[in-house]
Specification:
about 525 residues; alpha/beta; six-stranded parallel β-sheet; six-stranded antiparallel β-sheet; 13 helices; globular
Length: about 525
Amino acid sequence: MAMLIEELIKSIEMWLKLIKKPQEYIDPNLDPVLLVPGVAGSILNAVDKKTGRTERVWVRILGADHEFCDKLWCRFDPSTGKTTNLDPDTSIEVPEDRYGLHAIDNLDPDMIMGSDCVYYYHDMIVEMLSWGYQEGKTLFGFGYDFRQSNRLQETMECFAQKLESIHTASGGKKINIISHSMGGLLVKCFMALHSDIFEKYVKNWIAIAAPFQGAPGYITSSLLNGTSFVHGWEERFFISKWSMHQLLIECPSIYELMGCPDFHWEHAPLLEIWKEKSNSNGESSVVLESYSPLEAVSVYELALSNNKVTYNGEKISLPFNLELLKWANKTREILCHAKVPDKVKFYNIYGTNYETPHSVCYGSQNAPISDLQQLPFLQSNYVSVDGDGTVPTESAKADGLKAEARVGVPGDHRGIICDRHVFRVIKHWLRADHDPYYNPINDYVILPTSFDIERHREKGLDVTSLREEWEIVSESQDGEENADSGKTKVGSISVSHVGADNTTWEEAQATVIVHHKSEGKQHVELNAMSVSARA
C-alpha cells in the first residue's frame, strides 16, 4: 500500500478513537502464541567446535558472502536426511534469547540503515505486545536451521520440546501457533508425524502464506540461478546469487518447496526452453519445449551436471541432487496424509493481488538455447499467476486440511506478516473464546466487515484505491447522547508529498462515513485513494 494512504488511514483511525496512545498492558488471560518463521527467517550462528567462538552468519551485511560460503555451505547426507557443513569444525546454532523471539525478530540487529529489510516477525511481535502478550509468558518464537528438511527428526524433537516448555511456562494453557511461509510445512510435518503431541499442546494453528503445494516458479529459478533475499543498495553488500545458489542445491528444504507434481493445478507450472534444433538436412529451426514438474528433472540434471565449487582449495561437484529429490518426495507423501486433530482449529491466510512466478522460460525465439548447461548463467522470464509474489494463491489455499476459515489478503510474501488487516484477522481468531475484538484500554469492540484494495497504473500514474468497513460496538459514554447522535457524519482528509529532489510526488484522499448508532453498533465506511508518480 502506498505510504501516504497508510498514514492517512492511521489518522482517520485516531480520529475515530480506534487507536490510542500505546500503553503498557498485559492480559493474563491470553493463551500463549508460538511464532514459526519460514525459509531464511531465523538467525543462524556459527560455533567453532575447537574454541567455542560464536558469530552470526545469517543474516549479516558486513563480510556476508565470505562467511556465508565458509560457514554455511553444506552437503546432504542421505543416510541421515541431514545437510552437514563443509567445514567440519563448525556447527550451526539458532539463538534462544528472548524465549526464541530474538532469532526471528530483526535478523541483523547490528544493521541501522535500512533495517526494515531484515525485519521478520518484528512488526507482529510489537503489535501482539500491544494486545497484552508478554514475552516468555504468552509469546514465544521457534527459530530453526532452515537449510534442513522440514521433517528432520532433530527439528521435530526440538519443536516437541518447545511446545512442552511453553505449556509449562504458561501454566498448562494450550498453544496458538502462527506460522509463515515454509514454517507452515514444518508445522504440518510435525502434525502428521506427532499428532498426539500436537493435539495435547495445540489449540489453534494459523498458517500465513504457506506454500502447501510448493512455489514452482520461485524454486525453479532458485535451483538453476540462485536468489537474492535483499534488493536495492543492500544487495551489493550481501550474499551473491551464485553463492546462494550453491547452498540451495544441497538444501532439503528447497527441494521440498518444488511444485507438487501430483497436484491438479488449474494452470500447470512449466519449465519452458526455446531451443535451436537441426534436421538431417542441416536446416535449423527454433522450437519452444515445455516440461512438466516431473519432466523438468532431466533438465535440472543436465543443466547442473558440471556445477562445482572450490572449497579450501578442493573442487567439489554440486549437481542436481537426486537423493535429495527422493527425500523431498517422501516428505510430500507425509504432508499429504496430515490431518488436523479433532480438538485443534486450523486457519489459513494467503496472499493475493501480486504477480507471482509460476512457469519459467529460458531463451527466446530470437535467442534460442543451444546448450542446457548455459541455463545457470541466463536470466529467466516468468509466466505469472495471482499470489503474493512468491507463493501462488492456488498453492497457499490448497492446504488439504479441515479449515475453520481461509482468508485471502492483498499483500506480498514478506509484507503480509506486517499487514494491518492480517493483524485484525489474527486478533479475532486468537480471541475467539472471549470477545475477540475487546480492547480493555479503549473499551470498545471492532468488527471488520469488509476490506478491498486495488492497484493499477493509468497514464503513467500509480493508483491505489481502498475500501474498508467496520462495526464499532461500545457502551454509551457520558455526553455521547446529544442532538447530533442520530445523524450520519461524513468527513474527509487529504495529504500530499513531494520528494526532496522533486522527481516523485504522491497525493492521497479519504472519505469516512460514520453512521448513527443503532442497537449499540455504529457502522463506519472508509474510502481512500492515492495517486503517485515518478519522474
